[in-house]
Amino acid sequence: MAGQGGPVGEGPDIYDINDSDQSSSSGKTAVRIASVAALGGLLFGYDSAVINGAVDSIQEDFGIGNAELGFAVASALLGAAAGAMAAGRIADRIGRIAVMKIAAVLFLVSAFGTGLAHEVWAVVLFRIVGGIGVGVASVIAPAYIAETSPPGIRGRLGSLQQLAIVSGIFLSFAVNYLLQWLAGGPNEPLWLNQDAWRWMFIAMAVPAVLYGALTFTIPESPRYLVATHKIPEARKVLTRLLGQKNLEITISRIRQTLEREDRPSWRDLRKPTGGIYGIVWVGLGLSIFQQFVGINVIFYYSNVLWQAVGFSADESAIYTVITSVINVLTTLIAIALIDKIGRKPLLLIGSSGMAVTLITMAVIFGNATVNADGTPSLPGASGVIALIAANLFVVAFGMSWGPVVWVLLGEMFPNRIRAAALGLAAAGQWAANWLITVTFPGLREHLGLAYGFYGLCAVLSGLFVWRWVLETKGVSLEDMHGEILQQDKTAAG
Question: Model's pTM, two decimal places?
């Protein structure tokens, strides 16, 4: 996602200053700007999880089977993959802020379109529209934050994206529960004679408008401005972010880098000697494993899951809200630790915790009594253990793979290939998310098998990180070329 030859994410490390040199006001400005950009993540989380409260209602109202339901739920992910692939090239042409505004419009259209749909094809269509917005936000927010963040707090500000995502998930669950409670059920009429589940989608219009409005209050990326020869504007933005110290040196170094780099393209993913750079495969692997551990099964289908083990619809909604709160709190742990202990240790800790909890759930559901309707029954202690294990799984994911993967994707790629590699990795993540989501309804009667697969993926994710992932803490983004060579040597060895 480079503008006129400058790759996304390079900016922070060419601001060659120490944290102590930054004024307090400049630091606060960087945090505020990053927070606004991360609001795209809040809509990302809301749009992804809002379907949770409407799953049963959509199936009942439109009379569709499990396969059709799975496609309707996962349709947004197809749009997300397409949006992620396209976001970088569009941002190169029209700027980062303009792309954020487009994402806000897409979320707004999806909110009303899905909420007012009276045919299942319309639900699918407008979920795809919202998904495109999600895909765009999933690329542009971490990229913009990287370009505007001082180096000493790059990891923490980058983690704001995941904090916003999980906050959006919590917001959607809380709104779903409130609307369901007001109407007396998700499929009961609420305002204007529209069912509560429809208002769950329409409510997304509020944060969409807020996000779009706030994008008018933040500046364009200084790297994009320099790349498009708008030096006076770039100077103003850099002054707001970093103060006056070393300002002209910083601008000079940005311009130098732009002049000696070619315009990034998909061809840059290939090594001069042939084949794809190893680090590209590592980024894609991180994205796929993040989804193959089954985290979105918890958030997309948790109401259905807990009702299947004996909880009422209201109790299931409450537990889902509690789970989302846990996810928010554990993301704060990652924000506190990521610039201290590093990215790789957090991932290894998370993989271990996810493996233990998922395998525990696999054993419990694999030995559950099956009711006449095919749903599992977990009486007594087994149901409590399953609930605890599910929430501990969220803890393990929320403090590690949730935020750390997004930070790594923003910083692990060398300058020359960052745009193409980030877009490819994000698209791969959404494709993996779609695959897991669309297959789960058919596995609802075989939960032991489903959680066993997710547990196996958690084990493999830890082995993958231990063998292939390099620590990026303290590594300048400009030095990532050396990291590529080391990564390829590791792959060859």
Answer: 0.74
